[in-house]
Amino acid sequence: MTDPLESLLAALDLTDTGARTSEDIFTGPSQWSPNGRVFGGQVLAQSLLAAVRTLDADRVVHSMHGYFLRPGDVEHPITFSVDRIHDGRSFSTRRTQAYQHGEPILSMIASFQTENPGLDHQAEPPDGIPDPEDLPSAADVLAKIDHPIARHWAQTRPFDMRHVPSPIYTSVQSERVAHQAVWFKAIGRLPDDPNLHRAALAYASDYTILESIQRRHGISWVTPGLKMASLDHAMWWHRFARVDDWLLYTQESPSAGGGRGLAQGRIWDRAGHLVASVAQEGMIRVPSREAD
């Protein structure tokens, strides 16, 4: 079995094809999954790094907006085309399209900026959250569940994740509220490249954010008939943080309806600095039960 961290780094190590038309072309591998679909966070991170490869080192990502168009196929690599939309004095804009079998599976636009001093404030960090050392790891919880997806998540995810108040893999044991928190960090030390850490943060941001919708309605991951898919993903990077240090991901869902749910998240470091903000809308359908 491939080491999960090595698998992550291999997936984020894109190949420049050398092809130049009006766009820059890169390729990247797909990480295997038992459901046959490429993890959305992987494609987000790869698309971001493809765009980074077309920029000067002083241009740093501050926002990204992407739409998931089709499921990715884990049996095939992914081609990334980067359109250099704009380069200004302080900002650059890139559009990345991820392709498989000649069709786009993700369309993303990202903005980059030279780092400058300016006004500085942030929301107050949450309090009353248990330390990650006092919580069980997702791998330990999942290892006790006899299911192929649970085994895959337990053995191959490159991040240690710890839920507050508890995970919802097989049941929702806490009260039905539309919010939760998750501590996470990479399971080992990553290289010092800041862009790699920013991309890995995008990768991890896709794991659990829709769970705030599920928790509100008492829907675990094994609920019969459950169908979920990410529709879009937006992210704003506020301050740099290493993803191999503990980060707290607070998540809430302000609304769900029409077979869709909106989830919002904030990512904090242990010192209480707001690192990033995230928003995602997802399709969520449970035909075997009526909505609460």
Blueprint of the fold:
Blueprint: H1 4-11, E1 15-20, E2 24-28, H2 40-52, E3 59-68, E4 78-87, E5 91-100, E6 103-114, H3 138-142, H4 148-156, E7 159-164, E8 179-186, H5 194-205, H6 211-216, E9 227-237, E10 247-257, E11 260-269, E12 274-285
Antiparallel strand pairs: 1-2, 2-4, 3-6, 3-9, 4-5, 5-6, 7-8, 8-10, 9-12, 10-11, 11-12
Helix pairs in contact: 2-5
Pfam families: 4HBT_3 (PF13622), Acyl_CoA_thio (PF02551)
Family: Belongs to the C/M/P thioester hydrolase family.
Domain Acyl-CoA thioesterase 2 C-terminal: 165-283
Q: What does this molecule look like?
A:
This protein has 292 residues and is α+β, with helices and mostly antiparallel strands. It has two domains: 1-115, Hotdog Thioesterase (Thiol Ester Dehydrase, Chain A, Roll); 132-292, Thiol Ester Dehydrase, Chain A (Roll). The protein is 18% helix and 38% strand. It has helices at 4-11, 40-52, 138-142, 148-156, 194-205, 211-216, and strands at 15-20, 24-28, 59-68, 78-87, 91-100, 103-114, 159-164, 179-186, 227-237, 247-257, 260-269, 274-285. Strands 1-2-4-5-6-3-9-12-11-10-8-7 form a twelve-stranded antiparallel sheet. Strand 10 and strand 11 (260-269) form a beta hairpin. Helix 2 (40-52) runs antiparallel to helix 5 (194-205).
